[in-house]
Each structure stands twice: as structure tokens, then as C-alpha cells.
Specification:
Helix content: 25-40%
Structural class: alpha/beta
Number of strands: 21
CATH topology of the largest domain: Rossmann fold
Number of helices: 15
Radius of gyration: 23 Å
């Protein structure tokens, strides 16, 4: 696939660009130079050097300027992406978003409007693991700004290395600083990366800092030849593979994680599967990740260990490759493992696309291309007909809402164009509360099988609601 990369010059966009180039063809970089240093959307320190960075890697650059006014700056971003599509015939856009729903949702929406794929391969990555990969992967990253106590002028211009990370580790928990600077605590500049053909050497720079708010401004820099280096596989090449295993000492439970992403879009695995693996790993469970097309054959061969639970992951907005395997009634052989697991009372959780699969297999329906839902939505836990039939309604309601920690209201991250009509064997657990009212008649956001530990959520719990997956795992 021909891709354009949203490139700020910082570590995250550079790392995302490197990943994209491993799987697809990066044909252009897209940079927005914002006049607003407090921009909600765009990195600003040393963004004027994006042209030099593009020269360093030999990739064409599309550069737009924006005043940086909130929301209206998105029109400039859309214009830049549209130019990339028109000029370089891109089919998708890659961003380095890690945790910002504000940024990711707006890029997703623009890409949808332009009929482009949107890939965020760093989405909800394990932050320490990610920083380790940057350090080990041949990236030369400089600190270009600090904006949080106790970070100070001593760090300006410093290289992101083990020494820097050791210092950050010591203060991160105490001062609520993210290890990636995702909370705006620090900014970075990429002087060298594996996909650079030449490295950038800083000749002159100015550092200024006041009240733990400082900038490292590069005034002069030049390109320098790099010695030839033997190709080295990036660790994410393995992370993003369709088959993955995770071990956790002291626990024999194995969770089967089902990858529903099309093999044509390997970057999606990092965005929709890897974050789920991280949650399962942190919860202390072993896991095995397989593509849905491989699971039935693996079970037939006896290649899988005893499975304690199954999680069906989501996919990109434009990725509907799995739908061709569903069949008219949802009984295609490639999803036999779901019916078999249900018959054995193995707990199942369907996330986004996974919920759509569960719905179809169970006799419900998916209403596609009806409503585009991107961003945070208010949700309300509801008491359903199924729980009301028990003698103790309050207890039943609490039982149904177990995966929501008995919360009445919460916010969820939606990324889909679908609604579901539940089969009779399912009951709603949570609905959208879009109007701020009681939400009783809202869109179904979560449901549970009436008799089995089978759940579906039409949102992404890996974003701000990890406890949903953790509580599901407790049902094993």
C-alpha cells in the first residue's frame, strides 16, 4: 500500500514511519507547521527542520502552514492529506499517535472523509518497551522541549538513551510523567533513524528554560553521510506478526487472542491486537495470538493448549476482509471455533469487529455503514429484560454489569460505522447515552449472552477502559 506519514520530526512520527516502511511503501511525509505553540493537534519545536529531515531520508515532503486555531486547523490538515492523495496516490495515512484520542479521532475522521485507511501503529503501546526499542533500534532522538516539573534545562538537547530513561523511570510515577512524553511533558527531534539515508548534525542551537518550561531550538544543522549498516529486523516485525505467544509465570490459563485484521494491512495488528495482548499480559495470563483464518485448522491439529478464554479483536474502519468469511448466516467454517468454544462454556469477549462476528454467528444482525462513530461516547449501564426476570433485580443487575465494575455511567472510545441488532440469546448491558438522558433506548454498546459468559462491546476497552478486559478475564 502507498502511504503518507504525518511527520512532525519527533520520535513517534519517525518510529511510525520506520514501521510503515517495513510493511508498505512510504511515498511522502506530511508536515503541518503550526503558528500556535499550544496547538492541540501539532508538534511545534523545530518543525521548521522537517524539510531537512525529509532530505535526510529521501522521501518527498508536503508541508502546510496553519494558524493553529483549535478545530479550524483541521481544515489545513485535511487539505495537506488531500494533496498527498492527489499528488502521490496514497491509499492510507500513518500517524504516531500513542494515547491522544483528540488527535487520533480527528485524523481518523479526516481519513474517512477522504476514503483513506488510517493506521496508528503505536496506539496504546507499552511505553517502556517502546522507548527501549527506540534506543536499541538506531534512532538518535534529542530532547527539544521540556514542559513539566521536575524536567529542566539540563535535559535540553540531551539524547534519549538508557541514562535518560533511567532518570525518567525514577521520577515518572512520583510526578505522573509518561515515559513517552505523551502527556506533553517533553518533546523530541529525530536526528537519525534507520530509514534516514543521512544523519542530521546540529551545528548551533539555543536553549532557554524558565519554570520547567524550556525549548532547545536548532539554529543551524547539516546532513552527514552514514556508514553502511547491515539490515537489522525491528522488534515490531515480530510483534506485528499474526502469530504471537505470551508467557506469564505462575499462571496456566491461556487466552486465545483472535486477530481479525486482514493480512493485507499488517500495521493494523499493532493498533488493534497488540494493545489487547498488553492488557492480557499485565493481568497475568498466558496468551496465544492467531489470525482467525488459522484457528480452526490449529485446533484440528491439536496445536493449541487448553483455552481458558477467547478475545476477538477489532479492525480498522475500512477493513472488512473478515466479512467474506462470515457467510449469509454466519456459519462459515473459519469461525467454527467460536461455536465450539460456546458449546464448551469457554468465556468469549468480542471487541468492535469481534462483537459484529459474535452477533452474526448468534443469529443477530449488523447494520453497516449507517452511522460513523469516532471518539468518546457517554455510556450507561442498563438493567435488561433478562436480569429483571430474576427474583433479586438489584443483584442481577450487578451480576450483568460485572465487566463494568458496577459503574452506572462511563465514557467509551468508539471507532466504527455499525450498529447491532441483538439475537434473542443476548441482552444489552450498556447503551449509548448520547442525549445525556437516561439512555434506556440508546444504541447497544455492550451485551452479554443470557446463559453463557459471552460478551460483546461495540467500543475499544483498551482505550481508558482496560478494566473491562481485566474483569472479563476474571470470569475464566
Amino acid at each position: 500500500m502507498r502511504l503518507g506519514v504525518l511527520f512532525s520530526g519527533g520520535k513517534d512520527s519517525a518510529y511510525a514511519c520506520n514501521l510503515a516502511g517495513m510493511h508498505d511503501e512510504v511515498v511522502c511525509l506530511i508536515t503541518i507547521a503550526s503558528g500556535n505553540k499550544e496547538s492541540y493537534m501539532f508538534h511545534t519545536p523545530n518543525v521548521n527542520l522537517a524539510r531537512l529531515q525529509a532530505d535526510a531520508c529521501g522521501i518527498p515532503l508536503i508541508e502546510y502552514e496553519t494558524a493553529g486555531e483549535k478545530e479550524s486547523e483541521l481544515a489545513d490538515l485535511k487539505a495537506a492529506i488531500a494533496e498527498a492523495k492527489r499528488t502521490y496516490d496514497i491509499a492510507g495515512v500513518v500517524s504516531g499517535a500513542i494515547m491522544s484520542v483528540y488527535q487520533a479521532s480527528r485524523v481518523q475522521r479526516i481519513c474517512n472523509e477522504l476514503d483513506l485507511f488510517c493506521f496508528n501503529p503505536l496506539w496504546y503501546t507499552d511505553q517502556r518497551e517502546y522507548m527501549n526499542k527506540i534506543i536499541a533500534g538506531g534512532f538518535e532522538i534529542l530532547i527539544s522541549g521540556v514542559f513539566a516539573y521536575p524536567l529542566d534545562e539540563k535535559l535540553l538537547g540531551a539524547r534519549v538513551d538508557e541514562r535518560f530513561m533511567a532518570a525518567l523511570d525514577r521520577i515518572a510515577a512520583k510526578y505522573k510523567i509518561t515515559l513517552t512524553g505523551e502527556g506533553g511533558e517533553f518533546e523530541t527531534f529525530t536526528a537519525d533513524a534507520p530509514f534516514y539515508k543521512k544523519r542530521i548534525v546540529v551545528d548551533r542551537a539555543a536553549a532557554s528554560c524558565r519554570n520547567n518550561n524550556g525549548l532547545y531550538t536548532i539554529l543551524e544543522a547539516h546532513l552527514e553521510d552514514k556508514p553502511p549498516i547491515a539490515p537489522k529486523a525491528d522488534a515490531d516485525a515480530e510483534d506485528n506478526a499474526d502469530n504471537a505467544d505470551g508467557d506469564s509465570a505462575g499462571d496456566t490459563h491461556t487466552v486465545l487472542i483472535c486477530n481479525l485484521c486482514s493480512p493485507k494491512y499488517p500495521l493494523s495488528v499493532a493498533e488493534y491486537v497488540k494493545p489487547v495482548e498488553n492488557i492480557v499480559k499485565k493481568a497475568g495470563f498466558c496468551f496465544k495470538t492467531l489470525h482467525y483464518s488459522e484457528i480452526d485448522a490449529a485446533m484440528t491439529r491439536g496445536d493449541l493448549p487448553d483455552i481458558s478464554a477467547i478475545i476477538l479483536c477489532g479492525t480498522a474502519l475500512k477493513d472488512n476482509g473478515f466479512a467474506g468469511s462470515m457467510g449469509d448466516a454466519g456459519y462459515a467454517d473459519k469461525f467454527r471455533f467460536i461455536r465450539d468454544a460456546s458449546g464448551k462454556d469457554i468465556p468469549i469477549l468480542g471487541i468492535g469487529t469481534g462483537f459484529r462476528v459474535l452477533t452474526k454467528i448468534s443469529g443477530g444482525d449488523v447494520i453497516g455503514e449507517r452511522d460513523l462513530r469516532i471518539g468518546m461516547t457517554k455510556a450507561k449501564v442498563v438493567k435488561t429484560k433478562g436480569t429483571a426476570e430474576t427474583t433479586d433485580s438489584s443483584s442481577a443487575s450487578a451480576t450483568s454489569a460485572t465487566i463494568f465494575e458496577n459503574r452506572d455511567n462511563f465514557e467509551v472510545y468508539e471507532l466504527h460505522k455499525n450498529a447491532v441488532t441483538l439475537p434473542d440469546c443476548f441482552e444489552a448491558l450498556a447503551v449509548a447515552d448520547d442525549d445525556g438522558g437516561n439512555g434506556e433506548n440508546g444504541r447497544t454498546l455492550a451485551a452479554k449472552h443470557r446463559d453463557k459468559e459471552i460478551y460483546g462491546v461495540l467500543f475499544h476497552p483498551e482505550v481508558r477502559n482496560e478494566y473491562v478486559v481485566e474483569n472479563f478475564l476474571k470470569r475464566c
